[in-house]
Structure prediction request, 140 residues.
Amino acid sequence: METDKMELAKTAIAAKERAYVPYSHFRVGAALLAASGKIYSGCNIENAAFTPTNCAERTAFFKAVSEGEKEFTAIAITGDADDYLYPCGVCRQVMAEFCSSKDFKIYLVKNEKEIREFTMDEILPGAFTVTDLEKGQRPE
Ligand code: THU
Prediction:
């Protein structure tokens, strides 16, 4: 929906302001719309040890899931570059865990007027999911 898209874009842009990025100085913001109608924002949170860094998208997902949400409608993502920010592979995999529906929308927000739309299948074709696990043959 157009109103969802604009509200998510604005929320992601605002969330970017709260990024904790003393190392990369590269801010990312995300806004995740749950099926409940609630929007969860996220920013990237870096760490002196580097690897514990959490991306904006995963911050939003982990906030939402830890509040009991498991179904999602859309996510907006925006970064500090004057370009579209494509989510990293780890965040795509986290999205695939919860957003297998063909209706789930991924909005890449360059600015409020330039927004690209993707589906999960476009952003992570052939995602590894629980159905692959179920096909697995486990040793006795
Ligand atoms: N980053 C995100 O927050 N999301 C992405 O999808 C790509 C990368 C963050 C992680 C790190 O804080 C900074 O951007 C530079 O990699």
